[in-house]
Amino acid sequence: MPEKYHIKTTPVPPRLPRIGKYGIVDWREDCARCHNCVKKACVYDRHRQESNYIRTLKYSNFLFFECMGCFYCVQNCTKELLYLTVNSEYEQLGNHYWTPEIIQTTWQQAETASVPVSGAGYRGKFAGPGFDAMWTDMSEIVRPTRDGIHGREYISTSVDIGRKPAHLEFKDGKIVSETPEILDIPIPLIIDMNPPEFTLPRLEPFILEAVKMTGIIAIMDSGKWQVLGNETQRQNMDNYLPNIAFHLNPEAPEIPVEVLRKTRLVEIPDSKSSLDLRAALREAVPGIVVSIRVPLDRKGVSRAVELVAQGADVIHVVADFNGNEINVKKPRFIKDMIREIHTSLIKSGQRDQVTLIAGGGMALPEHLAKALLCGTDVVSTYLPLMIGLECRLCSDCKPGLSCPAGLEAIGFDYGVGRMRNLIAAWYLQLIELMGAMGMREARRLRGDVGRAMFFEEMEEEIFGTLFGTRKRA
Ligand code: SF4
Ligand code: SF4
């Protein structure tokens, strides 16, 4: 039996005190000193941990906010001296899309590499905007595919990038039709370049190491080629090149062809001459797969479809970092744009031959699975790796401003370890989701909307006949 894909992980604890949601305010002046004090009964032992934290205080600007919010001590204190409080610093993390819950759960995954468990029952909303308006069908959760998770069968998460021929032609037992180059990656995930809104920390050395360890690919701006990685990595760059896809920035000096020959995927920005450039690259670097990056602005969806019709093999469509259409007053969300591109390609009979990579707003592993169900082959993301390093996703993240999480000066092992753990946690969650959906191959998830339910469609189906169509904002 060939070896299964596996990411070896070890816990990487945080550098800073955790920014949790809840804390306990203790009005101890009136304490009756009960011998069976409720504080001793906290199953998480938070009151003792808080006392230790205060006794060995290292950071005077961080209070102890690690209470789990179960209310046990609050409800049972005989003198009603304990109150639950919500950490205002926690509420300020991220933005409307990258919510404090997403940021906190990303920190946990980067620390432990495990699937987050929220305890008894789901406490959140059941529908919302964006990916929250979509549910995956987990009805196979007790079926044998679950064995794949526990080692008796395979669940394959690998996917291919490149043009797949519609059919093969044989002559005298040999393939005579053209077999274009494809590359396969073990998870349908690639690491993108940083969004323009987040330019402060220089994370390339950690990303290079993490993608090499996990076998996935990171897109790097060609303008950074000369300064890519740290000193040791630069001396051994050949080991890293198979996991790098250069984004050929037209304003940066050209990358030597002998360097490109050691990579497997390259990306070019969309332009009038992108198809000519693609042809020239394939001639200069035989075997390389060329992706064309298309920003999802007003024309993005139609442009992606047009490029495929003109012969492009791999299209990388990118929305803004919140997953919205770029520079549009009433933007569409990434999942809807992926569905539109996917359906158009099916209609034109080209879907099976090309690879679609989609990025923007991919914040959680469930977004990865949902984006595949909507019709992309691969997902690209960047911010979760940065958040995994205890980043808070501030509104100002530029060189010259100070980083509250001190990301400019993190250790190499810490940075790589947290990124590797996060990629492993995403992988494990994809496997869990696929097991519950009864899917054994990530390739077959693509566009399988039968495994998903969409809020708008269900609402229309159930209430449409009674109340009519919902008015759009
Ligand atoms: S509310 Fe629950 S978790 Fe928090 S300190 Fe009290 S008993 Fe512990
Ligand atoms: S904590 Fe803020 S400044 Fe630091 S990397 Fe994150 S977003 Fe940028």
DSSP strand tally: 16
β-sheet strand percentage: 5-15%
Shape: globular
Q: Gap between N and C termini, in Å?
A: 55 Å
The gyration radius over C-alpha positions equals 25 Å
Bound molecules: iron/sulfur cluster
Oligomer: single chain
Explained architecture:
This protein has helices spanning 46-55, 72-76, 88-91, 100-112, 204-214, 231-235, 237-240, 257-260, 274-284, 300-309, 334-347, 365-374, 383-387, 412-437, 455-467; strands spanning 22-26, 82-86, 134-136, 159-162, 170-171, 174-175, 182-185, 189-191, 217-221, 244-247, 265-269, 289-295, 314-318, 355-359, 378-381, 452-454. Helix 12 packs across helix 14. The protein has 473 residues and is α/β, with parallel strands linked by helices. 37% of the residues are buried. The protein is 31% helix and 14% strand. The protein contains 15 helices and 16 strands. The mean pLDDT is 92. The protein binds iron/sulfur cluster (2 copies). One iron/sulfur cluster is lined by residues 24, 42, 44, 46-47, 67-74.
